[in-house]
Amino acid sequence: MTATKGLEGIVAAASSISSIIDGVLTYRGINMDDLAENASFEEVAYLLWYGKLPNRSEIETLQKQLDEYAVVPNEVLEGMKLYPKNTNSMAALRTAISSLALYDQAANDMSPEANQLKAIKLQAQLPAVVAAFSRIREGKEPVAPKKGVSIAHNFLYMLSGNEPSDVAVKALDQALVLHADHELNASTFAARVTVATLSDIYSGITSAIGALKGPLHGGANEAVMVMLEEIGSFANVEGYINNALANKQKIMGFGHRVYKNGDPRAKHLQKMSRELGKLRGNMELYEMSVKIEELVTGQKGLKPNVDFYSASVYTALEIPRDLFTPIFAISRLSGWSAHILEQYQDNRLIRPRADYVGPVNAKYVPIEQR
Ligand code: ACO
């Protein structure tokens, strides 16, 4: 038995949710470019869960369910008020989502209907949890969710307490569509491994949030912004990047395990970053990002991934830097839960083997002799 480091190239599950074939990403067979241009995030979540685009009455039913479930139990919000003020946002999210299970009577109901409903419930509650976390640490009360508006609209509203602009809602909605699913990425795999033991959906999502937190995965979008802030201005880009590459540092937001010729989602975020920059009358972050891309692609052949231009997009939307990865979680929850439902449908315990490389024939030595 020889291990494949990072399971590169290993096919670990059959799935009909999303595919990456020859660098083209599809959700349920529909090209991501098509969905990014035309679909709302709610339509995409429905597509991922049910395997087809919703008709008008189906999307209206989903909207009603999202409205009904978006309220977070008060016990969870009160619990969040006890988190230390400087808590890492993804750690807070991991804890809060786990605690939602304690107040859901159906948390351990494993029927397909109950699990589908929990997927919708979590999708409704996650944006409210992220917005509440942001407000509580600023000493403000959480804002109750609105009814009849999109998840993107509701999230921006609950974050600031003010009505968001149409431009901001559209940009965030598109970003949510772009992040919704991505085949067997690390966090989705973590979710599937957890529920393949027949553990509950909350446990699966909590595992996924833990996996998404790391800077090699979802945490990269925040890390990109840290880098842009460290660079500070367009004039510093060349020196910073040349130095980082000479020191063999990883440039966050570049490279991908699966895409070697570029991440198809990045172009949409780049366009959005340019348009939002123009609207705000401040193109510096966009221009810095383009210059970084030119240097990193030119010198290393590495292309930007989904996280790279997300950083300047979310900054243009005036979203705090440490909420970038929680926003990724809001979107990816649709994919995680679709994969969890798919795993339950045809489950088998996921239990690979390890290539043992430790000592052999070692003997127990009594403590006095060590
Ligand atoms: N900057 C500089 N060099 C890089 C980068 C980068 N961002 N990414 C890969 N490389 C180099 C590595 O140093 C390595 O070089 P070497 O062969 O000389 O040692 C080579 O490219 C292969 O890299 P690996 O890390 O082995 O590639 P892997 O497939 O394991 O990793 C990953 C993919 C984790 C995305 C990697 O490219 C990376 O760390 N990127 C930065 C973090 C990032 O943006 N993550 C988000 C990914 S998208 C997502 O999860 C949503």
TrEMBL record:
Belongs to the citrate synthase family. The active site is at H256, D307. GO terms for cellular component: cytosol. Pathway: Carbohydrate metabolism; tricarboxylic acid cycle; isocitrate from oxaloacetate: step 1/2. Keywords: Transferase, Tricarboxylic acid cycle. It catalyses: oxaloacetate + acetyl-CoA + H2O = citrate + CoA + H(+). It comes from the Bacteria. One of its GO terms (biological process) is tricarboxylic acid cycle. The keyword Thylakoid does not apply. It comes from Paenibacillus agaridevorans. The keyword Transcription regulation does not apply. It holds the Pfam family Citrate_synt. SUPFAM superfamilies: Citrate synthase. One of its GO terms (molecular function) is citrate synthase activity. This is Citrate synthase.
